User: Fold this.
Amino acid sequence: MILSAPLWVPVAITVAALVAAAMGRPVLFSQERAGLRGRAFRLLKFRTMRNGEGSDGERTTRLGRFLRATSLDELPQLLHVLSGKMSLVGPRPLPVRYLPRYSKEEMRRHKVRPGITGWAQVNGRNAISWQDKFRLDVWYVDHRSLALDAKIVALTLIKVFKHDGINSPEADTMCEFTGDK
Assistant:
């Protein structure tokens, strides 16, 4: 990861400058997410939304939509990979407030480090239901391997370039997970 820094650090600096110019500060969005064994950590992403609604009634900016479509908003998470809080591949870390809403089976997704990308992301991302995401996350936990991780990274690159599965059918982002108990 550190060896790839000359590739992603200049991109991250450019994105930070664009976010600062388009939306001001803060440049980063942070939120408490559940990591390995459900332990909380502060996840960082580049900010994609205005603090308040714009003149068009939207909070997500044009730059923000581009950053989400290209997954460039996720670049700061590479720092979490370097620190050991995240992995490149694993179930996406979700807000800590979801922890009490998981079934016992869904909670198994926390047996591995969360990832920047994962099996659920390459099999539908935000275009699939919460139940399907969790089923895919648990499948990954049970079948993880170096070969599977390599496949997921390759599929992620293809999905990002195709802008495939970025939005849920209802909105630009996934709806709140309320639990299915």
The longest strand covers residues 28-34. The longest helix spans residues 5-23.
